Amino acid sequence: MFVDWTYALRDWTTYLDAAWLSLKLSLAAFALAFALGLLGALARRSRHAVLRAPAAVYVEVVRNTPVLLQMFVAYFALPSAGLRLSPVQAGVLALGVNVGAYLTEIFRAGIQAVPGGQREAARVLALSPARTFVHVVLPQALRNVYPAVVNQLVQIILGSSLLSAISVPELTGTAMVINSRTLLTVQVFGIAAVLYLVLTNAVVLVAGLVGRVAFKPSLPTPARPRPLSAVRRLLPARTAGPVRKEA
């Protein structure tokens, strides 16, 4: 059966605006998740139980409840507690809090993977704990977990489709509105799927370029081969044998 795409493409500017909104919301939620994940990882590694316990509860509760339920709590339940949020604010908050729990464990694993000798060397150099973390531990931890962090950003972009449940006009919500008006289900959601593919692959490409610049491999320069004459000069000089006395 032939599928006509021309009528569905008449709303191409609406699709692009919705895709741009999805990307902006995803980046805002990722910034919140990154901050929460880093703070949560530090709290989980703290020696004080007053910091470890709330961080552990946060991770367990958020990771074991649906993100859609968390969006409903942010949008419908918080106003009853006196905190009224717009649909966009509630969606960004829910996505950021959800992914922040996963980033907490990712960052914790990355920090634990840094060899303890690095911290000992920093202590010998009289670096404070804060400077040791910022200049020694954190760069290596980010290098270790960078692919996993980028994967969480992709998950946020895909998870932003759930924001349509609280009336955010992102890509999926816009596609549902267009579909209800045109009844071109295959074409409308096909265009939305293509745009999601473009968004996620573009983000992965840009993140890969950023990773190559930020985490350049520090490999030693291979030594140039020495000429044979230089090698001979490095060898120990031959000592003359005992002189034989003639009879």
From TrEMBL:
Keywords: Cell membrane, Membrane, Transmembrane, Transmembrane helix, Transport. GO terms for molecular function: transmembrane transporter activity. InterPro entries: AA_ABC_transptr_permease_3TM, ArtM/GltK/GlnP/TcyL/YhdX-like, MetI-like, MetI-like_sf. It is a multi-pass membrane protein. Its main location: membrane. Coiled coil: none annotated. It is found in: Cell membrane. It holds the Pfam family BPD_transp_1. It comes from the Bacteria. Gene3D superfamilies: MetI-like. GO terms for biological process: amino acid transport. The chain crosses the membrane at residues 20-42, 148-168, 188-210. One of its GO terms (cellular component) is ATP-binding cassette (ABC) transporter complex. Belongs to the binding-protein-dependent transport system permease family. This is Polar amino acid ABC transporter, inner membrane subunit. It comes from Streptomyces lincolnensis.
